[in-house]
Amino acid sequence: MYYYENMRTAGRFAERKKRMVRKFKMMRIQSIQGSKNNVRKNSRILKIRAAADTRLKKVFAAIGVPEKKKFKPDSFQLEALAAINHTDCLVTAPTGAGKTWIAEQAILQIFKKGGRSWYASPLKALTNSKFAEFIKIFGMDNVGILTGDRKENPDAPIIVGTTEILRNQLYDAMHLGQTLSTDFVVLDEAHFLGDEDRGVVWEETMIYLPSRIPLLLLSATIGNARQIAGWLSSIRSRECIVVEEKKRPVPLFPIFFHPSGTLLPLCAETDSRGKKRIYKKVRDYLNRKKPPLLAPPSMLPPFGEILGVLKKFNLLPAIIFLKSRADCDNALDLCSGQLRTDRNRKAKINQKINELVAQNPYISKHRHMWHLKNLAVGAHHSGQLPSWKLVLETLMTEGLLDAVFATSTVAAGVNFPARTVVFLNSDRYNGREFLPLTATEFHQMTGRAGRRGMDHIGFAVLIPGKFMDLRFASRLINSPPSDVLSRIKINFSMVLNLLLSHTPDQIEELLEKSFSTFLIVKDKTKKGGQKQIIYDQKYQWRDFLRHLNFLKKAGYVAENGELTEDGEWASQLRVDQPLMIAEGFKAGIFPESDPALLAAVIASFVNEEESDDRIAGQFLPKKLLSSFLKVKKLLRPFAHSMFSAGFEARTLYLRPAAAVYAWASGRSWEEVIATAEIAEGNFAMLIMRTADNLRHIRNLTRAFPKAADTAAKSIERIMREPVAMHDESPPNDQVFDN
After folding, report:
1. Can the peptide bond before residue 705 be classed as cis, meaning omega within 30 degrees of 0?
2. Most distant CA pair in the chain: distance in Å?
3. What is the C-alpha to C-alpha distance for residues 90 and 223, in angstroms, rounded to an integer?
4. 20 to 30 A Cα–Cα from 95, which one of 245, 270, 445, 649?
5. Residues 6+ apart with CB under 8 A from 348
């Protein structure tokens, strides 16, 4: 229950909180910079002087740019291309080895025969990048793009899109009794099969894809590739050939950054089993009771001086992985001693920035623009606007930056190469807790070190500190990638969409094709536990029945297992909380004629963050509060019934709704950000996910024509700069379709 007896008090609370946040940020910067002199009085903090161990002399001599050579495909590329001509193929090779070339050549062969291809990737940024690349190769008329944000040239013979869109097309094809209109499918970043949140989409896509359509999977980080291929062969009745390339195109050399500024090889000696051991001087450092540090545990190290050392030994550009978004932002201020003196390069940076700003004018006022122009450093993380991240990625790719401070998310598929990657932590935050890096995550991050065609050698620099376990990190360097596990899980959207085209008995057979079942059967067969196999195989089926029974009670499925009229239109809500939103429409409690209000209410269903819901009065008009409380009150019984049945029903918060309402009502970006007290990237993500939910509502033209029309108007109001980038805003009749 929420209380708003005194809006002025809430407003004063918000203002006081803003002042406290500003004060904390100022104290943080002063703590980082101002206490430097006090820190150095402590004998454990050493003054940095650039030096290198003599063992590195030969390694550093190898640094340079390779001679330009005529492209010649590697044997693994030719092997994969030959395989995909007659069957499925799973390619696992290090980042930068040339997996995309295989996909391009295979698509070219299909294209020349008059066939159609689908290229699916996990990230919109990757999809946009691949769309631009394919246009250069195949021509603008022959390539289309399908993401939540963009729908351009959807009838083109070559489609680039997100995996969710491909999965949804498979749903629709099964419902209509048609086959997917393509002759070839590429699943890039195939290790997303093991992603805890989104892996189910990859697994569904592999299960539903007709076996007549050849499947090419590309990944740099699959430890159990042959196991996955065995599963695919069993469910698709065609062989899946595994092509593995373990050699990095650019060798990786690990380095230890001693707090004195001396660079040491991390590993040197080889033990009796042929494995590299930690270099003796590094072991000596680790064995000290109180080893010297670069900075106290609660402070960031002097990054300006660290970059100075890397620059002296020609180890830039670098990606420096940090624990949090705040650390990435604060690190920029610690580089102020590294002003660029190369006028020519600075001019190139300014020219490129001006070109990008012309497409997205808002970013000209970005708070990190000075650091970018004058220090050639930037911060890249999910708290940044997509348009700003694009600026950083473009400058880094073109070799115009010295360093980017980033969270580990930059390693997940973004084309963002560097000569060196720097680690300060041997763990990472997964959105819920800090966990040790897996071998797969570590390989993804080090995969950015060393640019093919630009470097002879790449480097991974490990910096000691509170959150760095050097012994653990050294083991990760030579560890094989982790196994990918099944992440399939039943959800209401899946059940509704499968019931469009399958009977419950047919769905049971479909669930038996899951990778999870395959792994269970294989494991239990080895152990001889046949009874246990049957029991475990039924887990997915029992969970399906649990969802099915709730849908029957809620009126979306009839007793015979067929969808009711409500179930049919609810199946089009392929979103996180389809039933809660569907119940809102059934009860007629959504503001179906007010675009700003509808966007605000839907935002409350999208939001996943807890909120204190204290909002300044000017940001809380009566009609918004009234509409929000009406939805919350009337959906509370249904949410309670979901919770009682063991299903998630998120708490609805007012603050995200108020922020989106203000934005949809025409308030400025700066005003909304300041009042909502939310990071730009977080708010942009909230808006984009809200727009994605609204697109599904827009599809309900037959059941709720008024709401569908209003949803389209809502999207137009919220998908504007700086959220929607200038070059991603095609005409309204093309943008907002799924």
Report:
1. no
2. 78
3. 12
4. 270
5. 400
Q: Which residue has the tokens 């910079």?
A: 33
Rg over CA atoms, the chain = 27
CB burial string 46-69: b at 16+ within 10 A, e below: bebebebbeebeebbeebeeeeee
C-alpha atoms less than 13 angstroms from C-alpha of 258 in its C-beta half-sphere: 23
pLDDT over 80 at 449, yes or no = yes
- Distance of alpha carbon 539 from alpha carbon 182, whole angstroms: 34
Q: What is the mean pLDDT of residues 698-725?
A: 94
Q: Tokens in use for 375?
A: 């220090």
Q: What is the pLDDT of residue 412?
A: 57
Residue length of the chain = 738
pLDDT value of position 525 = 53
Burial class (CB in 10 A: 0-12, 13-18, 19+), 437: buried
SS3 of 327-373: HHHHHHHCCCCCCCCCHHHHHHHHHHHHHHHHHCHHHHHCCCHHHHH
Q: Are 338 and 378 in contact (CB under 8 A)?
A: no
Which tokens sit at 426?
């041997």
Separation of alpha carbons 240 and 243, rounded Å: 10
Q: Are 544 and 495 in contact (CB under 8 A)?
A: yes
35, 427 in Cβ contact below 8 A? no
Give the distance, in angstroms, between the CA of residue 150 and the centroid of all CA atoms in the same chain: 18
Beta strands in 463-531 (DSSP E): none
| Whether pLDDT at 7 is above 70 | no
pLDDT at residue 597 above 90? yes
354-388 pLDDT, tens per residue?
A: 999 988 888 898 999 999 999 999 999 888 888 89
d(C-alpha 519, C-alpha 530), whole Å: 14
Element (H, E) at 223: none
List, for residues 99-120, the tens digit of each pLDDT value.
999 999 999 999 999 999 999 9
> What is residue 725's predicted lDDT score, i.e. its pLDDT?
65
Residue 632 in 3-state DSSP?
helix
Identify whether the C-beta of residue 131 lies closer than 8 Å to the C-beta of residue 105.
Answer: no
The domains of the chain, with CATH numbers, are 35-61+250-336+401-477 (3.40.50.300), 75-244 (3.40.50.300), 492-554 (no CATH), 572-735 (1.10.3380.30)
Stretch 303-325: mean pLDDT: 94
| Angle at alpha carbon of residue 128, lines to 595 and 248, rounded to 5° | 145
Ordered DSSP codes for 572-598:
T--SSSHHHHHHHHHTT-S-TT-HHHH
Q: Which of 601, 673, 30 is nearest to 334 (CA)?
A: 30
